[in-house]
Every structure is written in C-alpha cells, then in structure tokens.
C-alpha cells in the first residue's frame, strides 16, 4: 500500500483533496468559492479566515458583493496550488459551517 501512495504524483493528491471540497471551483492554478451569507456572517468568516491564513502564511482574496462573498485561494500566476492552499480551503469550509451553523 505504501508503494502505491508513493507512486502517485502530488497533483493527483491535490486533485483528490479538491474533489472532497464541495462548492470549490478550480480555475487554472486558483480555486474559488462563492458563499451566500449576510454582512455579519461575512465579517465573522473573514476574521476566522485571517487567523488560519496567517498561520499558514497565505493570503486568500476575499471580496463582498451584495449578499455574496467570493473567496479565491492560489497565486494565479502559473504557480501550482500547494498543499497549504488546499488545507486553507478546507479550513475556510470549517469556518463557514461554524459561522452559518450548518
């Protein structure tokens, strides 16, 4: 079993991890998620994401438009996604569930 895991490429591992993150869409070397939340939830989510992003030394893009929050993770300059960026997306999902109570 260990030999099988080692033979897999890093990209396969990241693709498998991304497949588990429902709602995230891959755009080249970035992933994005749009959330329908109110202003108070947006503020709470942004604070939680900032704590995790700082710990991982990453900078996601978070923007607000009407009742939607758009989050982008990744460099977007032909740098491949990293394990840390996929981990950040998973932690954002955790924060989203905590903020919305779902």
From TrEMBL:
Keywords: Lyase. It catalyses: (4aS,6R)-4a-hydroxy-L-erythro-5,6,7,8-tetrahydrobiopterin = (6R)-L-erythro-6,7-dihydrobiopterin + H2O. InterPro entries: PCD_sf (IPR036428), Pterin_deHydtase (IPR001533). It comes from the Bacteria. It is an enzyme of class 4 (lyase). One of its GO terms (biological process) is tetrahydrobiopterin biosynthetic process. Its EC number is 4.2.1.96. Signal peptide: none annotated. Pfam families: Pterin_4a. Transmembrane segments: none annotated. Coiled coil: none annotated. GO terms for molecular function: 4-alpha-hydroxytetrahydrobiopterin dehydratase activity. Belongs to the pterin-4-alpha-carbinolamine dehydratase family. This is Putative pterin-4-alpha-carbinolamine dehydratase. It comes from Micromonospora sagamiensis.
């Amino acid at each position: 079993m260990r030999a099988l895991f080692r033979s897999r490429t890093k990209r396969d591992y990241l693709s498998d991890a991304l497949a588990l993150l429902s709602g995230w869409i891959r755009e080249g070397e970035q992933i994005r998620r749009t959330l329908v939340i109110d202003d108070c939830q947006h503020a709470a989510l942004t604070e939680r994401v900032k704590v995790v992003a700082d710990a991982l030394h990453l900078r996601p893009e978070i923007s607000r438009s009407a009742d939607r929050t758009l989050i982008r993770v990744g460099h977007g300059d032909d740098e491949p996604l990293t394990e840390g960026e996929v981990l950040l997306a998973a932690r954002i999902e955790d924060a989203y569930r905590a903020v919305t109570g779902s």
